[in-house]
Structure formats: C-alpha cells, structure tokens
Amino acid sequence: MAAAARPLEPDADARAAMMAAVTAHAERFLEGLPERPTYDGAGGGAPPVFAETPGAIETALAHIARHIEDPGIATASGRFLGYIPGGGLFHAALGDFLAAVSNKYAGFTPAAPGAVKLENSCVHFLAQTVGFPATAGGSLTSGGSIANLAAIVAARDARDPKGGGAVYSAPTAHHCVDKALRIAGRAEAPRRTLPVDANYRIDAAALDAALAQDRKDGVRPWLVVASAGTVDTGSVDPLDDIADICARHDVWMHVDGAYGGLFMLCPEGRAALKGIERADTLAVDPHKTLFLPYGTGAVLARDGRTLRAAFSATADYLTEFAAHDDISPSDLSPELTRHFRALRLWLPLQLTGVAAFRAAQSEKIALARYMHARLSEMPGWDAGQPPDLSVLAFRYRPATGDIDAFNGRLTKHLQDQGRAFFSGTRIRGRVHIRAAILSFRTHLEHVEEALAVLNEAARALEAE
After folding, report:
1. pLDDT tens across 273-312, in order?
2. Positive or negative CA dihedral for 328, 331, 332, 333?
C-alpha cells in the first residue's frame, strides 16, 4: 500500500518539474491578460477527469487553461469593471502557496502560535486602518457574507438574546444582511426599511424618527445596518450622523463595509467614510479594496470581547498544551477549521509596502470621478450621481424607444463584445449600467477605452 500511495509525496526533482510547469503556465496567463476578452460565453467548461493512475501536469494545466481560465468573466483583467472586482495580487498567490505547503492550522493558537500571531496582527492592522481603538478585535473570514453574519450574531448575543428587537436598514443594503438575519434566527425581527436621499444614502432624520416612534410604540430598537459603499452605486451612508443617532438611542451600529470600508487607508476614502470608526461592528473585504484573491474578508468589533462572547467554545480534545497570549481565531468567529488566510494579506503588504495600496486606492477613486465627469459631457448619457468611492451607475438615453429595454440590450452587448465588462442593475426600478473601478490593474488607459467602447456600442445600437 505504501508503494501505491507514493505519488502523494513527490521527490525534489518531481516537485521542481511541477513548479516549473505551473510557473510557466502562470506567466503565459499573466502575459496574455491585457489582450484577453473580458468575457467568453462560449461553453461552460468540460467536467474534469478523475483517473485511477497518475496524470501529467501538462494535461492538467491544459484543462485549466481551456475549461477554467478561458470561459466566463476575466475577473483578473484591468478591463473588468463589473460587480465588485476581486484582486488577485501575485504576491498573495505566493502567500497562499506557502500557507498550503506549511499547512499550518491557524484556528487554534497552541497548534500554530506564529500563524495565529500573524493573523491577529493583520486583524489589528485592519482595525487600525478603520480607526478602531486598541480594544478592537476581529477575525479573517471567507468574505463579507460570513463577516456580516458574525457581526450580526455578536450583536444579537450582546443586545438581543431573547429576540424582539427591531432592525433598521435601507433598501440598498446588501442581500447578505437578510440572509445573516435569517441564519441568526432573526428573520421575524421587526424590520424598518429606511428611505434614502437622492444619492441613495440613508436619510438620517428618517432613522431618528423611526427609532423614536418605535420607542414610543413599545418596540425595542436593536440593530441599525449602514453601508460603507452600497452594491449598486457605491454610496456611503452618513455614518457620523448615524453614529450620533445610535448613541442617543442606545442602538447597535453595524456597518457593512465589505466593498468600501478599507478605503479608509487613503485620504479620499477617509473623507467619504467619516464616522465608520464609531461602529460597534464592521464587515470588510480585503479581497476587494486591498486587491487580494477572493476568499478574504474580515469581521471587526470595536470591543473584541463581543466576538469572543458570541463564538468562544471549548472541547475536551482541544486541550491547550502550551501557554500563550494570543486569542485563538476560532474563539472569534464561527469557523474552527480554516484556511491560513493571513499569509495572503501580510505578504503583499510586506513586499510592496502599505503606500502602494494607498496610492492604488486613491487612483481608483480618481478614475471613478474622471469617468463620471466624462460621461456627464458625452451626449446621450445620464451619468447619475457623482460617486462617493469608485462605483458609478449610469444609463444611455436613446432618442426614441424604451430607455430600460435599450440599456438592458446595451449591457448584454457590451458583455458579449468582451472589450470591457460592465454589470447591470435596477435602481428605483430603472435599468442602469454599473462600472466598479477597483482592480489594481485598472488605469487611465482602461477607463478611456471603456468610455470609447460605451459610446461606440450605444451609437451602434441606436442606429439599428
């Protein structure tokens, strides 16, 4: 049996050959990325082979190229402006490789004290970035959905253990908040949907009035969910005003900053996000605003004890066999077994320096403002509201015909064309095109190309 299992442990020569093949494959992918179509809708990828005997690395890489990398959206492209782009920093890939090779279990401090210290240090860096105090705590998660869920569970245990507390949010809140409330057993909580202003931000006066009315009616306010960058328009709710209101009414303030929260690293972001540092809990996604690969989120709490109270658990088989000072990440989140995510965050920061990330964030905000200004000047285009961060929603107004139907066709045409990828959405029932400028590979030349593509496609469809 040992002989049959020997392929599981290749020797140095075999490892070197595989690494050389994978490195060459990755180089071909990266070198070809600037010319790769942003979308390939031809085919969904063939199912892989699960063979009984060893296969060649070249065969596996050919399958990856043809059936995984080619079909669908080229999310690593600088011309990918759809949804909220993830990153894919090469430095982070190196971190993932090293994390997988060492296979350190980073959920339990005695098992990997250095890995846990690195993760807790990364969490501390994120907390400092958003302006949280030294009492803050948190955990790296798989993304914003789990981060929001963890925050809502912590808020439930801290302020609404028996249920009945009311929840306040805008219609622009991400749908993962609804899912989190359902998973947390608060699907039947009294819900108050708040009006938004012309820029799709929560009307703070309406929130204040809703809280006061519920108090008067005998309904206990529990949780306010604000957004630091909504999914459709990237709008930032008036966080400072909301913090004042929550403090006055003694209500838990949670901010979904999965998209925009970490723009606090750059001065333009700090100006837009004033007040985020006053939240009780916050969800952020380094795989968005810090350009890391998908699967990197974080939940942060101003008082880290609230997370520990919600998630800490013990088991006989997890006896601590060494003294340590660092809190185990498994005591701060729903996850016990977890990927060593910190290495993909720390290594890029170590190799490039924080200043590079700050500059890239400032560039993305500047590009969004530039794109909005240009659209405002281009005949036929409704540029929408100026962007708070790096997302903007706009639409074309044809001379005749249904505007919504036209913009729906235009979005699909742009996607199928593959020159620049935009996503679409409905805002107040009207079809819009979205541009999310967040890839570290997106620069002025890509925005100029995207503007040209938009104009050419709109004119061509209008002429039909």
Report:
1. 999 999 999 999 999 999 999 999 999 999 999 999 999 9
2. positive
